[in-house]
Design goal:
Layout lengths: L1 H7 L4 H13 L3 H15 L5 H17 L3 H14 L4 H13 L3 H14 L3 H18 L3 H14 L4 H13 L3 H14 L4 H16 L3 H12 L3 H6 L8 H12 L4
Helix pairs in contact: 1-2, 2-3, 3-4, 4-5, 4-6, 5-6, 6-7, 7-8, 8-9, 9-10, 10-11, 10-12, 10-15, 11-12, 12-13, 12-15
């Protein structure tokens, strides 16, 4: 019906606005971009700020997914001029700046997101992403830990946060904290990747602190939860815990 309406009138604004999200959900990005460019052409100078901001964010999303980080960055920046606390624009701008290698700029936008996002899940995710930027791209692991601690204050028991804090504890050779954080993560995540990573953190900390039997049991259980991590550690026993810890570090520093 929408397609027919646009065939009859390619500039029918309600049909264009309804079609754009459909193409985006289908991941037909070029078609979606064409729709939103038409919307922008039809509404520039007449639309209210919120509607115009939405259009720029949608264009930014299309550009970003198609690998045009520079254009996406400009679209998101324009959206933020119109609506400074737009969560999607802040997320997209941070991502686009990162794609261009501007990690300090990406970190700044994540801080803005932390201070403005109304949803707890967005705040926690922004803390985690900021911590990742600090650790993996700016080589500031101690500062990354502060952001993860702040995320935990917002959402106690968050498994990914606990796992990441546990991995950082391994780097500091703080085995007691590593054990505690891993056990807390396992209390929240019984299955899946977080359970697998938490179990490996626990196994490393136990082995390093001399509890070989418990370490072996934790390691075997952990690898049953995460096939991808199990593949990466194929042939590596927990007796080689320093190498296992290095795999965990490499995984923690990969893009989320």
């Amino acid at each position: 019906r929408l397609q027919r309406a646009l065939e009859l009138n390619p500039r029918h604004l309600p049909s264009l606005r309804a079609s754009g999200p459909i193409y985006m959900r289908r991941r037909q990005w070029e078609a979606a971009e064409a729709i939103w460019r038409n919307v922008l052409e039809l509404t520039s100078g007449t639309a209210n700020a919120d509607d115009l901001a939405n259009t720029y964010v949608n264009l930014g999303d299309c550009d970003r997914v198609m690998g045009r980080a520079d254009r996406a960055r400009k679209r998101y920046a324009k959206a933020l001029e119109l609506r400074s606390n737009d969560v999607r624009a802040l997320k997209g701008l941070a991502s686009s700046l990162g794609a261009e290698g501007d990690w300090n700029g990406a970190f700044t936008q994540l801080r803005n997101l932390i201070s403005t996002a109304p949803d707890v899940a967005d705040v926690v995710d922004a803390h985690i992403q900021a911590a990742w930027v600090l650790d993996a791209r700016l080589n500031l692991a101690d500062k990354a830990r502060q952001y993860l601690d702040a995320a935990l204050a917002v959402s106690p028991g968050e498994p990914e946060v606990l796992v990441r804090l546990g991995e950082l504890a391994l780097r500091r050779r703080d085995w007691t904290s590593g054990i505690s954080l891993a056990e807390q993560a396992l209390a929240s995540a019984k299955i899946g990747a977080n359970a697998g990573r938490a179990g490996v953190v626990l196994a490393v900390a136990l082995r390093a602190s001399g509890d070989n039997g418990a370490a072996a049991r934790a390691y075997e259980e952990a690898l049953s939860h995460d096939s991808a991590l199990s593949d990466r550690l194929s042939g590596q026993g927990i007796e080689g815990w320093p190498q296992v810890a290095e795999v965990l570090k490499a995984q923690a520093q990969e893009p989320r």
